[in-house]
């Protein structure tokens, strides 16, 4: 089961697998109370990637729920504040400024998603070095692999201004097509049907 939790910054999801609850992404700083009230308890907090609008409340939420935070190992240094993401262009400069205002709290401890044996974790690098997608039944939680436009509500690709490596990103788009799913749950915007995703990729490749 995948359920949307209303939060600021990005889509936050509650995943239930074999009776175990996981929170996927946490949005900007300040979401922790809202998410904790909706979830009450969970097995862990999973971050699809380490951009500030997805990890901003992870540290505070982990303390409230007394839960571990999981991510791909290639995201660890970003989540701990050791490395910084490089954003490009005018939009990237605005994002960097906004991030400096929001001041995400970096994590002290992060566990590898490879430890989560009850979930199918797919490494989908490109947007960031350690971006992941999570397959839950017929649903794929895909972080910022794809998203929906703010005003038109149409599926679109992630902005190159925020991608770590465009070539790797395109490989990941092809990679997820090999998996069986009917719906994509993006980090921003509404649920995307598989056929919409396939139509989007036809325009790209």
Automatic annotation (TrEMBL):
SUPFAM superfamilies, alphabetized: Metallo-hydrolase/oxidoreductase
Listed GO MF terms: hydrolase activity
Species whose genome carries this gene: Ferroglobus placidus (strain DSM 10642 / AEDII12DO)
Keyword vocabulary terms for this entry: Hydrolase
Protein name: Zn-dependent hydrolase including glyoxylase-like protein
InterPro entries: Metallo-B-lactamas, NDM-1-like, RibonucZ/Hydroxyglut_hydro
Residues covered by the Metallo-beta-lactamase domain: 9-188
Pfam families named in the record: Lactamase_B
SMART domains for this protein: Lactamase_B
Record carries keyword Hydrolase: yes
Keyword Hydrolase in annotation: yes
Gene3D superfamilies the UniProt entry points to: Ribonuclease Z/Hydroxyacylglutathione hydrolase-like (3.60.15.10)
